[in-house]
Amino acid sequence: MDIQERRNILVTCGPGLKDYLQPEIEALGFEIISTHAGGVLTRGSFVDCMKLNFSLRTAYNVLYLLRQFRCGSPDALYKQISTVPWESIIDPEEYLCVVSQVDTKTINHTRYPNMKVKDAIVDRIKRKTGSRPDSGPDRNSVVVNLFWKDDKAWIYLNTSGVKLSDRNYRKMPHKAPLRESLAAGIVMATGFDGSQDIVLPMCGSGTLAIEAALIAMNKPAGSLRSNFGFKHVKIFDEQIWKKLRNDIRKTIRKNGLKKRIIATDIDEQAIYAARQNARTAGVEHLIEFSACDFADTQLPTGEGIIVMNPEYGSRLGELEQLEKVYKRIGDFLKQRCAGHTAYLLIGNKELSAKIGLKASHRIVFYNGNIECRLLKYELYKGTKQPRKHIQTHASK
Ligand SMILES: C[S@@+](CC[C@H](N)C(=O)[O-])C[C@H]1O[C@@H](n2cnc3c(N)ncnc32)[C@H](O)[C@@H]1O
Question: Model pTM?
Answer without folding.
Answer: 0.94
